[in-house]
Amino acid sequence: MSTTFDPAQLGQQLKDETGIPPLEKWNPEFCGDIDMRIAADGRWFYEGSPIGREAMVKMFARVLWREGDKYFLKTPVEKVGIQVDDVPFFVTQVERRKGEKGIELIFTTSTGDRVLADAEHPIRVETDPKTGEPSPYLMIRFGMEGKLARNLFYQLVELGRVVHDKKGSELIVDSTGEAFSLGKLRL
Question: Which CATH class is domain 89-185?
Answer without folding.
Answer: mainly beta
